[in-house]
TrEMBL record:
Descriptive protein name: Myosin XVIIIB
The entry's keywords: Actin-binding, ATP-binding, Motor protein, Myosin, Nucleotide-binding, Signal
Gene (UniProt): MYO18B
Binding sites annotated in the UniProt record for ATP: G107, R108, S109, N110, T111, G112, K113, T114
The organism of origin for this protein: Laticauda laticaudata
InterPro entries linked: Kinesin_motor_dom_sf (IPR036961), Myosin_head_motor_dom-like (IPR001609), MYSc_Myo18 (IPR036064), P-loop_NTPase (IPR027417)
Length: 778
């Protein structure tokens, strides 16, 4: 009996016919389970077909580099699985419904999300066309070249790992042409300028600039002599091949800025700020005694390229209390902000200035991009593409170190977006069936992304009640750090003790098997069960309380730039003077089109709430508010999800196959893919899609549109003098059309259809509209 049981385990699950091994939509599988989904994905991936539909969404395995990126010219309802198919669907939905659309990429880091987003935008611009040639494919390519330089870092095998979140929106006219584009960014990992994990680098633009500047520019920026050491870890490329690649990348960056209309004087401003950060790192700071620069020669160079006096720079970096007194005397009244913040060390002050300068520089780059895309043309709707850093774990890259605070924040952002997928694909669908009194045999999963999100940013009284804990209301990690940062004598160990006592496996928030947090044996390290517990990540809490402190040097950076003696530099950064302090972490407030003003208004509403007013000077509050703003911006649109999966590299070599003549296929890590499938709720959403009703239409709209297919039966319901009984009329229409009972359901206010809407549209002769560009091309 035991052998029979083992045999059943080894046998494949309830098999699907071989004809479905390469099915384009996982919803078409006869037997839907984890093993059958993995089998189809593997068959397609090994045949260089990395894209597969998962109901209304798309699953993308990291494409093979030689794969041709072409969806083929097909009819609207017969699009092959491809990222272009997602773009087409979102575009048609936007034109048909006059509603904003959003395409959101989810998944681990280094799975091709940024490249997919770029391809989607290029395809839409190339196919739909621009009204006044304000938005072109060349400009989209230039934007991503600039963002890869200023916003990506070298991290292990990924030499361009994204370290910021962005929303790039295309505005469309009523005829379906692109009128403008608008870029907004948030959650920039500004601390990366001064602190990098072991084996990783700072933002790529530094090495590119140091390798590609000409001799005259080096002399102007005092970069003719490189520093032997930098406390920021910024170094020029030493190896010949690396230096040539960095120099070529810098030439591409300059060309991209020129394509976006950035003048040579404005580019010089960007290099000045980067050089100033480099010189600050070379200047260093005295770790004993008074807070001051260690090497005044390099500090003087930093002051010169930034257009200020050396004493003015020193005051902005170290002497915050003196600067506040001078500002009070100049203003002639008491300032709203208190004169002092938390006590900071000299190293924290210097790192804060570098982070503040880079944050303002990045915002200036976004402003220059939006200036190139701005237009006064009227627009009716927008299509947004959302790209964020994927789930970051050193374990995914076969590294032994623990994750950092910045990686924790990016993972928290992915959890928030995963929560949007849960609400859009599962919770709202089940709620809609309940409202319409339509019975669908489906139960929501017990494990929810909200539990992980609540661990970070909320009071978890509701989680405690569900888990059967006590009545205490422990705070999330962000608020524990926020409180500890304001207390004298606080420490990382104390913050971790508070967190583990509330949410650890032995804590109040759950039993031994239910905790979402586990304290590790290593000091100041803990493990968080991300992605519904399927992808645990180990973190090192060293220095987290320090990173939660409000750093006045960051705040002083913008004043230093706006008061510069260099006119061109001052001109670039003055437009940011009107941005409130709490909103400076978000870039892209500019924009004069109607759609851009709507998006900026949505962000302002988030940052002007009572919570934001109370916590204006809180680093942790800024992190939460930025993700609140991103979520609110996406939720006002209809969302299309792109699940990017990492096929991985197996830790052990695979055994040889019986057919030795076959070429070895790409790597396929089954445990990693199982964790990604389970943690992203793809199967649950697919099951609900199969047994549910994908399309919906209001009762009156459905009757008026399709009653022409049964005119004799529906003639009695078309009287102009009395309102028909919609439900009775629709029941008569269903009988006349001989629709299957499982394919259509009649709700209180809507008709829910599983697969008949497309058939009925074909009977009516509906086709893609020839008034829109995509309809003409197919």
């Amino acid at each position: 009996m035991f052998l029979l049981f083992l045999l059943l385990l080894l046998l494949p699950p309830q098999a699907n016919p071989p004809s479905l091994d390469y099915t384009e939509d996982l919803a078409a599988l006869v037997s839907l389970n984890e093993a059958s989904v993995l089998h189809v994905l593997r068959q397609r991936y090994q045949s260089q077909l990395p894209y597969t539909f998962s109901g209304p969404h798309l699953v993308a395995l990291r494409p093979v580099p030689s794969t041709a990126s072409s969806p083929g010219k097909v009819q609207r309802h017969r699009m092959s699985p491809h990222i272009f198919a997602v773009a087409q669907r979102a575009y048609w939905d936007m034109l048909a419904q006059r509603q904003d659309q959003a395409i959101v990429a989810l998944g681990r880091s280094n799975t091709g999300k940024t490249t997919a987003c770029q391809n989607i935008l290029e395809y839409l611009v190339a196919t739909a066309g621009s009204v006044d040639n304000r938005v072109t494919v060349e400009k989209i390519q230039a934007v991503f070249t600039v963002l890869r330089a200023f916003g990506t870092v070298s991290a292990g095998p990924n030499r361009a790992s994204t370290r910021f979140s962005m929303v790039l929106a295309l505005d469309f006219s009523a005829s379906g042409h692109v009128t403008a584009a608008h870029l907004q960014t948030m959650l920039l990992e500004r601390a990366r300028v001064a602190q990098q994990p072991e084996g990783e680098g700072t933002f790529n633009v530094f090495s590119q600039m140091l390798a590609g500047l000409g001799l005259d520019q080096r002399s102007t920026l005092h970069l003719h002599q490189m520093a032997e050491n930098s406390c920021f870890g910024i170094r020029a490329s030493l190896k010949g091949e690396e230096k040539r690649e960095a120099s070529a990348a810098f030439a591409q960056l300059q060309a991209a800025l020129g394509t976006l209309g950035v003048e040579a004087a404005e580019q010089e401003v960007l290099w000045r700020v980067l050089a100033g950060i480099y010189h600050l790192g070379a200047a260093g700071v005295c770790k004993v005694g008074r807070k001051q620069f260690l090497k005044f020669e390099w500090a003087n160079r930093a002051a010169d390229v930034l257009g200020c006096e050396a004493e003015e720079l020193s005051t902005a970096v170290f002497k915050h209390h003196l600067q506040r007194i001078l500002e009070q005397a100049t203003a002639g009244a008491h300032l709203e902000e208190p004169p002092d913040g938390p006590k900071l060390s000299g190293v924290e002050c210097l790192e804060g200035m570098a982070a503040g300068l880079y944050e303002e520089l990045f915002a200036a780059v976004v402003m220059l991009v939006n200036r190139s895309f701005s237009s006064s043309q009227l627009s009716t709707a927008s299509l947004m593409v959302v790209d964020t850093p994927g789930f970051l774990s050193p374990r995914h890259q076969k590294r032994k170190r623990a994750a950092t605070f910045e990686e924790f924040c990016h993972n928290y952002g992915q959890e928030r977006l995963q929560g949007l997928f849960y609400r859009a694909s599962l919770e709202s669908e089940v709620g809609r069936y309940q409202e319409e009194n339509v019975e669908v045999p489906f139960d929501l999963p017990e494990l929810l992304p909200a539990s992980m999100v609540a661990l970070v940013d909320q009071n978890l009284s509701q989680v405690i009640r569900r888990l059967g804990g006590g009545g205490a209301d422990p705070q999330g990690l962000l608020w524990i750090l926020d409180e500890e940062a304001l207390m004298q004598g606080s420490s990382d160990s104390r913050a971790l003790d508070r967190l583990c006592s509330a949410f650890g496996k032995e804590g109040k928030a759950g039993g031994e098997k239910q905790g979402v947090l586990r304290r590790c044996e290593q000091p100041l390290q803990f493990e968080v069960a991300h992605r519904l517990g399927k992808d645990p990540i180990r973190y090192d809490a060293t220095g987290w309380v320090s990173k939660a402190k409000w750093n006045l040097s960051v705040q002083n950076a913008i004043q230093l730039l706006q008061q510069s003696k260099i006119g061109a530099l001052r001109k670039v950064f003055l437009p940011r003077a009107q941005v409130p302090l709490l909103c400076r972490s978000v870039a892209g407030w500019e924009g004069h089109s109607q759609q851009a003003l709507k998006r900026s208004g949505c962000l302002r509403k988030t940052f002007s709430g009572s919570f934001a007013t109370v916590r204006r000077r809180s680093v942790c509050a800024q992190i939460k508010l930025q993700l609140d703003a991103l979520s609110n911006l996406v939720k006002r649109s209809r969302i299309h999800f792109l699940h990017c999966l990492d096929p991985g590299t197996p830790e052990a070599p695979r055994p040889p196959t019986e057919v030795s003549e076959a070429a070895p296929g790409p790597a396929w890590d089954v445990p990693a893919l199982r964790a990604q499938l389970s943690g992203s709720l793809i199967l649950e959403a697919l099951r609900l899609h199969r047994i549910g009703y994908a399309d919906r239409m209001e009762l009156t709209h459905f009757r008026r549109r399709f009653q022409v297919l049964a005119q004799p039966e529906m003639k009695k319901f078309t009287s102009a003098y009395e309102l028909p009984d919609e439900k009775k009329a629709l029941e008569e229409l269903f009988r006349a059309l001989d629709l299957e009972k499982k394919s259509v359901a009649l709700g209180h206010t809507q008709v829910l259809e599983a697969a008949c809407l497309m058939l009925l549209a074909c009977l009516l002769g509906d086709a893609p509209s020839t008034s829109d560009p995509l309809g003409r091309s197919f």
